């Protein structure tokens, strides 16, 4: 059961985050009625009203099941919604002894439900415990790209030890994203990513080991988000990437390169990821001064196929595609 302290934080957060802001969307499933049309993704079920004693207020919540997908994953998004700058929050019942990922989706593809951002919680002690921000792209929706992880030590209040209701929220202003857990901002400030500019909102559930999980959600809300200095200050540093060259590149060519331009100093991590999401090459450097540098990746021994270079620095992530030939 959620603690009294966490419940108070949720109430204060919900009131403060919407105070003075225009409500663009809400879903409360009051009296067993959905206020919006919900679409099903991954051949699973759509979000639907469900009566349960676990409900935080009126006895009704939304329920999403992963049993029909055949892939242990379920996703549902609101139909005919398209938001760009906003704050989106949802209160989700997160068990600590089952399931893997429970969370929200935003700026999702309102038509095919095949792409969008995700903000997820994994609290099961039998697996890796973390919160994650990732992007699900239409060219490979079953292999999302991780953009930011928060470890248990970075999560305000730590990993919950009991199952209960928790509010996940994101403030999206242009390419800047700030994330909240139970009303408290996650460390690292605003994260910069330009993959998706607008889209719908929804929820997501995944458990590789079980097709018999459910996600319960209530008090979903999207409010207009104003731009403030705090939204972008932590992302003021930036960097750009060139296209990979040569591209395509043969495995026997030895290597390919990507040019990067940094506006500030700091550590830089770069990985090469295959089509299955596996990291096959890593590079770590330090940008000791603002300016240009080149990142090279050896291609010897790589199977032919499509790869993605992912470069991260100061909480920002950039990606470039490269094709390796025999």
Strand content: over 45%
Which series of helices and strands comes N to C? HEEEEEEEEEEEEEEEEHEEEEEEEE
Point out poorly predicted stretches. Answer: 1-19, 227-236
CATH architecture of the largest domain: Sandwich
Q: Helix/strand/pairing class, anyone? A: mainly beta
Q: Which sheet architecture does the biggest sheet show?
A: 9 strands, antiparallel
What is the total domain count?
2
Helix segment tally: 2
CATH homology-level superfamily of the largest domain: Exo-inulinase, domain 1
Mean pLDDT reading: 83
Q: Which outline best applies? A: globular
Query: What share of residues is helical?
Result: under 10%
Number of strands: 24
Highest-level CATH class of the largest domain: Mainly Beta
How far the N terminus sits from the C terminus, by CA atoms, comes to 56 Å
Under CATH, the topology of the largest domain can be stated as Jelly Rolls
Radius of gyration: 20 Å
């Amino acid at each position: 059961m959620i603690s009294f302290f966490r419940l108070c934080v949720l109430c204060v957060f919900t009131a403060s985050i919407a105070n003075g802001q225009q409500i663009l969307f809400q879903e409360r499933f009051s009296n067993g009625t959905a206020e919006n049309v919900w679409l099903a993704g991954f051949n699973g079920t759509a979000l639907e009203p469900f009566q349960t004693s676990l409900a935080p207020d009126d006895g009704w919540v939304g329920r999403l099941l992963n049993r029909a997908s055949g892939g242990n994953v379920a996703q549902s998004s609101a139909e005919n919604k398209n938001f760009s700058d906003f704050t989106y929050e949802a209160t989700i019942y997160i068990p600590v002894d089952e399931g893997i990922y429970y969370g929200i989706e935003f700026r999702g593809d309102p038509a095919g439900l095949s792409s969008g951002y995700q903000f997820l919680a994994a609290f099961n002690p039998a697996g890796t415990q973390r919160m994650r921000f990732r992007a699900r792209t239409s060219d490979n929706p079953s292999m999302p790209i991780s953009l930011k992880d928060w470890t248990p030590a970075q999560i305000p209040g730590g990993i919950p030890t009991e199952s209960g209701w928790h509010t996940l929220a994101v403030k999206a202003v242009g390419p800047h994203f700030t994330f909240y857990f139970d009303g408290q901002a996650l460390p690292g400030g605003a994260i910069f990513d330009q993959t998706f500019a607008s889209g719908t909102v929804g929820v997501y559930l995944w458990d590789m080991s079980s097709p018999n999980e459910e996600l319960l959600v209530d008090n979903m809300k999207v409010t207009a988000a104003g731009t403030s200095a705090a939204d972008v200050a932590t992302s003021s540093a930036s960097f750009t990437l060139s296209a990979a060259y040569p591209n395509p590149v043969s495995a026997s060519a030895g290597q390919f390169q990507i040019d990067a331009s940094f506006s500030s100093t700091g550590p830089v991590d770069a990985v090469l990821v295959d089509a299955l999401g596996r990291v096959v090459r890593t590079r770590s450097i330090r940008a000791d001064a603002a300016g240009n540098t080149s990142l090279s990746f050896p291609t010897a021994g790589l199977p032919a196929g499509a790869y993605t270079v992912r470069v991260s620095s100061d909480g920002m992530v950039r990606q470039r595609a490269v094709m390796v030939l025999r």
